[in-house]
From TrEMBL:
Part of the tripartite ATP-independent periplasmic (TRAP) transport system. Residues 34-162 form the Tripartite ATP-independent periplasmic transporters DctQ component domain. Belongs to the TRAP transporter small permease family. This is TRAP transporter small permease protein.
Length: 177
């Protein structure tokens, strides 16, 4: 049994690290969007010529950036919770509810992965592009689908943690100290 637990701990730790770096990558995407917007505003103010197509870049980039944060939010227990309802409950009940939440997260991740995969197939097949830069829309689907796969893996890691009697935020705190 110890070997199985060890493999589970490795899976949880590896998933956590991948999700963390993926979310940081999403932060880089968001930073780039802010930079493009600042350049566009400055250019509009100084020479009356903003960066063309900034809207389409922000539209795609913001979606990708937000999806890239979702797996880390799941695995670290950073999703929105109603602690006011669980504050007086026993620890084992809170861990159980965390497991139930992870199960719902897994179901939601798989549902979104299924539907976004269908969307990806459509935009890829019909070669839909942005209006100004003609960037294929499917480019944004690739990191989004990776994010949803990581979201599912993060939820599985949370289920493993719940089975072990751990809360995600406790594991996160233990890793940072």
């Amino acid at each position: 049994m110890a070997a199985a637990t060890s493999r589970q701990d490795i899976f949880v730790s590896l998933t956590r690290n991948i999700c963390k770096w993926w979310a940081l990558g999403g932060g880089v995407v968001l930073f780039a969007l802010v930079a493009v917007n600042v350049v566009s505003v400055v250019m509009a103010a100084l020479i009356n010529k903003p960066v063309p197509g900034v809207y389409e870049l922000v539209q795609m980039g913001a979606a990708v950036s937000m999806f890239m944060a979702v797996p880390y939010c799941q695995i670290s227990g950073s999703n929105v919770t109603a602690d006011i309802f669980t504050a007086g409950l026993e620890r084992r009940v809170i861990v159980f509810l965390g497991g139930v939440g992870a199960l719902f997260g897994l179901a939601w991740a798989l549902f979104l992965l299924w539907r976004m995969s269908a969307g990806f197939e459509d935009v890829y097949e019909y070669r839909e592009t942005t209006a100004i830069y003609q960037i294929p829309i499917w480019y944004a689907y690739v990191p989004t689908l990776v994010s949803l796969l990581l979201f599912a893996l993060a939820a599985i890691a949370n289920l493993i943690q719940a089975k072990q009697g751990k809360l995600p935020e406790e594991v996160e705190a233990g890793m940072s100290s």
